Amino acid sequence: MSRRAASLAAAALLVSASVGLLAAAPKTYRSAEWGFEFAYPDQFDAGRYKDTLTPEHQARLRETGQESAFAHAIALVELSRLRSGAPLDALPVGEMATITVIPARGQKADFDRRHLFRKEWETTVGGRTVYKLPGYPGPYGDTAFYYLLPLGDDVVVELFAHRRHMDQARTDTGYDRVIEGIIATFQIIAPGG
Questions:
Q1: Are 47 and 89 spatial neighbours (Cβ–Cβ below 8 Å)?
Q2: In sequence order, which residues have a C-beta less than 8 Å from that of residue 184 and are 6 or more positions away?
Q3: d(CA 26, CA 20)
Q4: Is residue 193 assigned to a domain?
Q5: Is the separation of the CB atoms in 102 and 74 below 8 Å?
Q6: 100, exposed or middle or buried, with CB in 10 Å at 0-12, 13-18, 19+?
Q7: What is the pLDDT of residue 125?
Q8: What DSSP string describes 10-63?
Q9: Residue 92: helix, strand or coil by DSSP?
Q10: Least enclosed by CB within 10 Å: which of 25, 171, 175, 191?
Q11: CA 22 to each of CA 44, 100, 111, 145, 159: distance values in angstroms, whole numbers, following the listed order
Q12: What backbone phi and psi angles, to 5 degrees, belong to 10?
């Protein structure tokens, strides 16, 4: 098989796999604390990242009114890529491709609004105004997809995901399309409800 034919076959496989991710029956993640819910594909499960900060580091953050970057993170992981027996409440950061959803209020949300809500990154996804940064880390990195979704006047939701799987082939994830599907389903709910 020629190199071009192999590339075309791989691209077709990626497109069909991505369409399958979006078309599957969705699950719903609901947060009464943050006042939102969203749907995500059935092939994923929601978990939390393993907290790797020492108690001393956590205490220093609390003293300054801060918290761990992943304190409120929702990690969406493809079940087929989750190691057998791996706990969903302590997923290791950076060991598998994930989609991360992090809601923020206060200083973090204000920072995002002031510095990252740029006209050149503004777009519409599912009828919602979002900010799709050109890359992460960066703003011009090539390792992750990165979106900011304003919800109401006080909450900003970060959605970011790996561009490539952590497998030896480093295959594309197609998670940008999954994130956009998730954004289209976001609903504001009554906090505490």
A1: yes
A2: 125, 126, 127, 128
A3: 11
A4: no
A5: yes
A6: buried
A7: 96
A8: HHHHHHHHHHHHHHSPEEEEEETTTTEEEEEETTEEEE-BPP---HHHHHHHHH
A9: coil
A10: 25
A11: 11, 17, 32, 17, 16
A12: -65, -40
Strands laid side by side in the 74-78 sheet:
44-47, 74-78, 99-104, 155-162, 144-151, 128-136, 122-125
pLDDT at 84: 67
Q: Classify residue 119 by its DSSP letter.
A: G
Check the CA dihedral 6-7-12-16 and report its sign: positive
Could you tell me the two tokens for 35? 């006042």
Q: Which amino acid is at 154?
A: D
Nearest to 72, CA basis, from 52, 95, 44, 100: 100
* Percent over 70 (pLDDT), the chain: 79
Specify the CATH number for the domain of residue 22.
3.40.1000.10
For residues 186 and 163, give the distance between their C-alpha atoms in angstroms, rounded to a whole number. Answer: 22
pTM of the model: 0.79
Q: Provide the CB-side half-sphere exposure for 139 (13 A, CA).
A: 13
- H helix count then E strand count, the chain: 4, 10
Residue 146's DSSP bridge partners are: 133, 160
Q: What is the mean pLDDT of residues 158-171?
A: 88
Domain encompassing residue 124: 3-188
